Amino acid sequence: MDRPKRKQGFTLIELLLVLVILASLAAIVVPKFASRSEQAKVTQAVSQLASFETALDTFELDLGRYPNDTEGLEALVRKPSGLDKWKQPYLKRQDIPKDPWGSDYQYRYPGQDNEYGYDLYCFGPDGKQGGDDDIYPGGSSQD
Q1: Rounded Cα distance, 57 and 96, in Å
Q2: Reported pTM
Q3: CATH number at residue 27
Q4: If you average pLDDT over residues 60-74, what whole number do you get?
Q5: Enclosing H/E stretch for 38
Q6: What is the number of structural domains in the chain?
Q7: Is residue 141 part of a domain?
């Protein structure tokens, strides 16, 4: 007596088992990559803030003061009116970049947190002022 031929292929249970294994691996691997991505954005923001600090200090050396709130960080790339001692674009870029999360960097002079200088920071991942994720030069959060 001949046995009926089985069709070759995977059973539903075998396919479900493979899917469970792949989902388990993804649950382990994806968060590790996601945290690296967020860490890279924080590092990028800290680096950009350090670049702004250098440019602001050079601006202050040339003009004897930091840009005021009205001039803002734009004074680092475009000459404000009435400043004859302004010597150069103080940043290589032609514009002030957004932070890695798409928000503007925050600049205030005179500073509220730094009464003898300026405040410079970005809101961080949540895009809102305050909280533990605001990023200041040097990478630390200030409360």
Answers
A1: 16
A2: 0.72
A3: 3.30.700.10
A4: 93
A5: helix 12-63
A6: 1
A7: no
